[in-house]
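Notes on consecutive records. When two proteins share a document, each keeps its own sequence and its own token line. Never mix them. Below: protein one.
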Amino acid sequence: MASIFFSMASLSMHDRLPPTPAIPDSARIFPEGSCDTHFHVFGDAREFPLIDERSYTPAPASMADYWAAFGPVGVERCVLVQPSVYGRDHSLLKRMLREAAPGSMRGVAVIFEDTSEREIEELHALGVRGARCNALFSGGVSAASLRAIADRIAAFGWHLQLLVDVEHDPDLVPRVTATGLQVVVDHFGHPAPGATPQGPGLANLRALLAEGRAWVKFSGAYRLSASACATDPAVIPLAHALARANPERILWGSDWPHPGIDARATAGSELAGALRAWLPDGDLRQVLVRNPTQLYWNH
């Protein structure tokens, strides 16, 4: 499969992403109605300023770049996630949601304890269905604020999305589920490379999946890989353990354009193909169509 290499650390704010290799129509991998539940866009920093306390500086990455990468493999719907580098400013997220084709996009915002009710209402009307806590990168919401944020979003039926290392605090996700909200955990639970499904944090996550009290995104596999590779075979046992816990609570995300990490940037077909290896029963339709429809479009 075609693939390209680049270092996010080497790109300035005005550089472009490398061009996406052309993918023939025959490379469609995903079923009709498939959804990528985790990607980002980055605008020109002169129009959409980055916060000073950010952990990385991304290159511009547009919706046209995104669809060129994942439209050919069969992605038809997507969930745009607010990145930490914009902090409280949802201007770019709002613009993308307004410009999206009807029914094609949902969003996940960053809500703080003092975010106004008016702002939350506007985001909801545009298609936002979740609030993200990013405890790993500067500029995000801290785990200590989650109870207050849960109270702010409960009336809208949103979920809480957590970017945390479940092994660093094994009881965090169970504590958050006690708020009564749906909880989505990014990037397989984001354990360190070499983690096994038997670790206490991952064991708790598997139990919550089995009970239907949490969701997990199969995304950012290179963040768990010592070689920063999305198709690292070492990730497969973890993916299988999570999927077997409850395939009805698994989501897929490209994590495009792979921000904040010196990783290999793969063609859409390679990232999409990796999902087949991660699902022990190969049920792409459950993960790519039914599950995101339930979480993002059924309310």
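Protein two starts on the next line and is unrelated to protein one.
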Amino acid sequence: MDARVVVGVDGSVGSRAAGEWAAREAVSRGAALQIVHVTSGPEPQPTTRAASGRPVDVAACLAGEMAARYPQLTVDAVVVEGEPASVLVSRHQGVELVVLGIQGAGRSAGAGVGTVALHVAAVSRRPVALVPPGPMNSNRRGEVAVGVGARQPDGAALDYAFDAACRLMARLRAVHAWKLPLPEVAWMPYAVPEEDRGRWEDQEEQVLVDAFRVWREKYPSTPVLEDVVLLRRLGADQGLGSRRATGRQPL
């Protein structure tokens, strides 16, 4: 089965932005684009109206637009009955990426990510991109960021992040968060001494460097910035919440 990028749409501004982003991503990957509109009944329930006031098929309308804008792109539109999150999660065969807007139809600007996007991102077998509404800047390709649990790195997430940075010729920012070792600071009535905090931070940075060794060898041309962040604990000593970013040249 040919590689596909799948985007879920509902006629909202957020889903339209997701569709445009997904089209560009599919082109960059040499993949096909599948636009999916999930309805709650046996008949399609369009959420967009044409200038004449007649309802239009959301998925087909966007597919036609993307096909015209990107002639090299293979696009198809699908209307599926069911529950949106379940439908999108089930579409994983041959799918490289699932794309969703972070605000669904009828949501206010402060409504956040949305339950469908959160559920899909949490349980999907494939990588998920959540796209904010608003115009896209096609020149903003300087950096790809990935969160890293350095002691147990997620290989699939790191492969995806390095591949994205390599394709975009961008720097990869690896963010590793750590906490002070509680048994050692429990007796300290004041802020942790800078010398001790610096020593622990050096150790965390080395853990991150060691965790990335395999991926640096696999992607030698991709520059990496290690970003080590000390988490601020609620009610903890003052002076926490600092970060250290170290740029290293490719091996």
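For the record: The helical segments are 13-29, 58-69, 84-90, 115-123, 155-168, 182-185, 194-211, 213-218.
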